[in-house]
Amino acid sequence: MRTFRRLEGLRRTSQRARFHHYVAWSLYFISLTNAVLVATVLVRVADESDAAALAAVSTVVGGQLLLSLVLIRTALRYYLGGQDRPDRLLVAYYAATAATLIAPVLAEAAGGMPEEGRAIAIYQAVYCAGPAVLAWPLRRAAAVCAVPAATCAIGAVALDAPLLGGLVIGVATAGGAAVCGAAFRTSAWTLKVVDRLDAARETEARLAVAEERLRFGRDLHDVLGRNLSVIALKSELAAQLLQRDKGAALDEMAEVQRIARDSQREIREVVRGYRRADLHAELVGARGVLQAAGIVCRIEDRHGERLPEPVQSALGWVVREGTTNVLRHADAGRCTVRLRRLANGEAVLEMENDGVLAEGVQDSQGGGMGLAGLRERVAALGGSLSTERGAGGTFLLTARVPAGGAE
Prior knowledge:
The chain crosses the membrane at residues 21-45, 51-76, 88-107, 119-136, 141-159, 165-184. The protein is an alpha+beta fold. Helices cover 70% and strands 9% of the residues. The protein has 3 domains: 2-200; 205-272, Single alpha-helices involved in coiled-coils or other helix-helix interfaces (Up-down Bundle); 279-402, Histidine kinase-like ATPase, C-terminal domain (Heat Shock Protein 90, 2-Layer Sandwich), CATH 3.30.565.
């Protein structure tokens, strides 16, 4: 049950987090493959080996394999920029690796292990390249990985293997280490690319929100800029007329009062969004922004241009706010916008996306000011706004507005 809950929790995380887990466990699996290979060799030579020599080699190799799992985790974090290089752990790991290279050779030389035990040293020399390419630059890592390969070749020759045979072992071990190192390095590099793409997507979402704020600021500037200038001039004029012509001064102050009230009304219109938001333009803009963020967007627009202007404006704001929510609060891969008009004349707009990250993020119970504002805007036209969470992390935003007449 606990494992199931962990898997369910992992499924609810972002695609980036799931990919991180996949790559990390893939690297752990490679190290565990080394453990399986070494264990297979130990089992095969157990009957022909001295018990003390077999126990010593098993202990050394087991410790090195445990250090390998720990080092893979910390070295991967270092490569991705999450922490400092684990120098002490690296020293301990490669000291243990040196021991695993020497122990089978010494055991064979002492007659405590058959020749087949050499494979343990070769496996360790190959798999130790993985953490090296994560913790060091490629040139230094190549030099570090060449030492175990050379050690295997020298050890084989020292145990009466022909020179050509030792050379073949060294080349084969170096080739295997290169393949293992390439697997680790490309996996970590892929993770770094995914992190950068995810950061770029977050930046794009923030820019979309910033653009909306700039648009709102421009609207306020357009509404207040001219009116405040007029109010300032007329107030100054009224002050000058107060000494000469009180009647004219009163007229000017009355005009100031009228302009101030008009400005108040226009600000309310901007804040509440009573200015017309073109529905077609919002749909096109939503598709462009979502697709630029890597989200597949599908628009199903049925007779949207035939809707009354107030209805189009209200639904346009729903599209705008819904798009912002998808960018900010979901790790979506797709988004579908459906606009249709029912037989009773009601206009229905649905925005459905996947990739909702956590409970309540986009829920109507969350009390978000965006959804609350949309609900007020739609209710002013006699409509309703609802949200629904579906299976698989989907989210559905539905706006219903009476459009008058039948289709």
